[in-house]
Amino acid sequence: MNTKFLFVIPFVLPVFAMYSCNFTTQESEKIATADTITTDSLERLGGYLVTVTGCNDCHSPKMFGPAGTQLQPGKQLSGYPADRPAPAFPKKMVSDGFVLVNADMTLAMGPWGSSFAANITSDATGIGNWSYKQFEAAIRHGKFKGQEDGRQLMPPMPWQNFTVLKDNDVKAIFAYLKSTKPVQNVVPGYIPLKR
To answer: What is the average pLDDT value for the chain, to the nearest integer?
Structure first.
């Protein structure tokens, strides 16, 4: 395989994602700094942020077709599929220093155990019943289900990256996720590594 091609991929994909969203940085800044923000503008900014921050990368089941990886229709942001059995934990590989993800990146296994991507759709099995305060605690402070006294979110959830989001950005992401099509899917719970 051409190594130059492999080197370019990590740099091209984020740029492609930004432009494929049809939402400019100027529009984002205008909404983020506006005194009055409409529900429509929040959802629009939220859709943009969900796209460029890569939420679908882990939270959406995928399938493989002639064009490569694509989101499963009707399953966007619904997390690890509840009807899919979890594979056996690869203890030897993890002890050798590996972190593994399944083919569609909705399951990660590492020194912490097995973590399953959450359902973040508007369904009650996702974040449909969450308050904004819960969502903010989850995304900014890494709290499971936004519970202040709850456990930390497990890798690979990059909540530490979101601590610097502006208030309007967090509100916009929440508004967008609340506007998504509800997908009923009870994701399996985190499985700690047994030592």
So the answer is: 84
